[in-house]
Fold each of these.
Amino acid sequence: MIVTYLGQPIMQVSRKHRTEAIILLQSLPCYLYFHDDSKSIGMIWHSMGVIKQAVQKLNSAQVPVITLDQPLYALAKMIQWNWKESHGEDKYVIMLGGLHIEIAGLKVIGDWLEHSGWVEALVKALLTHSLRHHM
C-alpha cells in the first residue's frame, strides 16, 4: 500500500506537506484505514499476511501461531482449507481462543454430571439442595 497525500506518493511530497500528512495520519482513528468489516474473510486474510510478515522478520523459521475467538477462528480455518498453497495448515497454526476452549470443557463436564446421580447424591447427603425440586 502506498500512502498518498493530495494524490501524490508520500515520498514525492515536499517536506512541509509530508509533515502535514504524517500529522493527519496520526490523528485519524485506526478503523478508518479499512473499508471491510473486521470479521470478513478479506480482513482475516490480510491480518494473517501481516502477522506472517512480522513473524518472518523476527524469526524466518517460525510458523505463525494465531489465536482467535470462535467466529474468527472459523473464518481463518476456511481460509486455510480453501487456499492451501498460501495459507494452508503447514503455513499457519490457528488456535481457538482460551475462553471458548474453557466453555466447551465446562459443557462436557456438565453433560457428564447431568445424569450421573451426582446432584441427587449431594441432596441426599444434605450438602446442598437441588433447584430442580423447587421448579
Amino acid sequence: MPSAPRRPPGRAGRKGGAGRTGLAPARVAALRRRLLGWWDAGHRALPWRFPQGRADPYAVWLAEVMLQQTRVEVVVPYYRRFLARWPTLEALAGADEEELLAAWSGLGYYARCRNLLAAARESIRRHGGLPRTPEELRALPGFGPYTAGAILSIAFDARQPILEANTTPSLEPFEALALSARWAGLDYPALVDRMLSAALRRCWNQA
C-alpha cells in the first residue's frame, strides 16, 4: 500500500494558533474585516434585514424558510403578504392549513409551508415562542443546522456559525490559498466559527 503523502509544512498546528483552519489569528481577523467591509458597502436593503438588536425571530425564520431554493425577488411579495396576514408566531400557529397553503401557492416545495405551520404550533405549545438553543430549534419540524443557526445568530445574536453550499466558494477567493487540490480542504466550520465577530455576528452570517 503506498504511503500517505505528507502534509505541506507550516499548516495546521503551526505557531500563532492557526489550529484546524490553517490560518493564523491575524489572517482570520483580516479576512473578517474584508468580508464585513464588503457587506457594509454592498448588501441589499431587504424587508427581513433588521437594525442591530431589533430583529423579529419569527420574521427572520419566515424569510429563511421562504428563501430555501427560491429567488429573493420571488420571495419579497410573498413575505410581505404573509406578515400582513399572520404578523406573529401566535397568529401563524392559529392559521388554517388550507388558507396557508393557498397563500403559499407559487412558491413551491409545499412541505416547507406544512413544516412552518407544524413548527409554529409546536413552538407555542412547548416553549411559548421560538426557542433559543440549537438543540430545541432543530427538534422542530423543518429545522436543520442552517435554519437554526440563521435564527440564533441573526435574531438572537448568538455565536452560531452557519454553513450552506455557497459558504465554501465564497470563502475561497478571500483566502487565495496556493495549495494543491489535495490539501485545499480547510476545516470550514472551524474557520467560520473563528471569523464570527462578537459585535457583528448577524452581519457576518448574512454576508
Amino acid sequence: MASLSAIPLNHAFEGSAKVTEEESNEPSIKAPPFASVADNVAVLGSGYYALSEIEELLPIAKSVTMVTNGAEPVQYRKENLSVNEKKIKEIKGSNTVEEIEFKDNSKQKIDGLFVAQGVASSLEFAKKLGAKTENNYILVNEDMETNIPNVYACGDCTGGILQISKAIYEGTKAGLSVINKLRG
C-alpha cells in the first residue's frame, strides 16, 4: 500500500496541491505506520487501485474517504463509500498528516492519507477484449486463462491477495500453461 510516509513538505501534487509545514522543523510529513480502529483515513485516487486500497482499509479504520482531487471516481464502488471529488489545495500537518484543505477552502480532518493513483488498469483492457470480469477482477480458470482462448491474466487483476508473491506465482503458472499449450 502506498502511503504518504515521506513526501517532502511543500511538495506540489497533481492539481497544484501541496504539503505544507505548520510549526514543525520536520523535513517531511509522516503517515501513521498503521491505521488503527480510531483512524479517519483518506485514499487519494479515483480508480480501481484506490478502490482496492479502500477495501483493505475499511475493516481496520473508523472511516475511509476516497479523495479524487477533481477526477471522476470509478463507477463501480460500494454505495456507502464516502467520496470527496473536490480539488485539493493543500495537505497539512505537523509531524503527521492532519488535514486536507480543498480549493473551495473547506477542510477535512484525517489521521492518515494513502496515495493510490497513477496505475494503469488492466481491467479496462480486458473488458475491451471481451474477457469476463466480476467485482473489478478478471475471471480466469486454474491455468490463468480467461474466457477468451489464449488470453491469460495474472496478478492483482485477478483478485485475491494483492502481493508480489501471488503475481509471481500466477505469472509462472500462466507462462507454463502457454508453453504446455504450444507443445500440444
